[in-house]
Every structure is written in C-alpha cells, then in structure tokens.
UniProtKB/TrEMBL annotation:
PROSITE patterns: RESPONSE_REGULATORY (PS50110). This is Response regulator. It comes from the Bacteria. The modification 4-aspartylphosphate is found at D53.
Amino acid sequence: MATRILVVEDDLLNRMFYHEVLGARGFEVQMVSDGAAVLDEVDRFAPDLITMDIQLPHISGLRLIRRLQRQEETKGIPIVAITAFAGKGEEQRIIEAGARAYLAKPVSVDKLVGAVEGLIERAH
C-alpha cells in the first residue's frame, strides 16, 4: 500500500504542484484547502504524513499542528510545515508547535521530496 500524504494548502497552484510532485513519487495524495476540514480529513484518510500550510482560511496551520500533536491518535503523524511567512523566529515557533520539518515558500521539488522522504524513512 502506498504511503498516504495529506496536503493542507489553500492555494490551488501549490496544491496542484504538491500533488503532481508527490504523486509522481508513488505517494497516495489527498488534498484539503480549508483548515476547518483538516481534522475530519485526517480521521477519514489516515495519512502517514501531513504537509501543512501555515496561513489557512478559518484556522491557522500552527493551531492545527498543536491540536494534532495533543491528540493521542494523531500525535505520531509527521508534519512538514510550509509557509510563505518566513519571519525571524517563525521556524522555531513552528517546530516547537510539533512540526518535524519546515519549508519556506516557494518550495523546490528537491526540498519538498527530501523533507517528505526523510520523515517517512525516520518514521519506519
């Protein structure tokens, strides 16, 4: 069975990019564009890894990361945080919230694939 990745991203072009890149590597990819739908989709799809945009409609990615890390059934899911807001101290704040990797937009194919594959390897 393919490794399942939930892509949480509100920008359509970014979602398409992540889907194409990760799908081409053999991952099963499901996408969510609204922060309010993330928790339900995590329960339904049971991802092995999540890529999380930080600036989302309705609820921030940072808040979602914290919530996922507090729940027993989801705290083991590795999260790659991806954000265009790469201000000073932002990476530290995101890692402290529970993300295991941080990428600043725009994200290159190599950085995205490297972060995802590295976390999946460490999880197994």
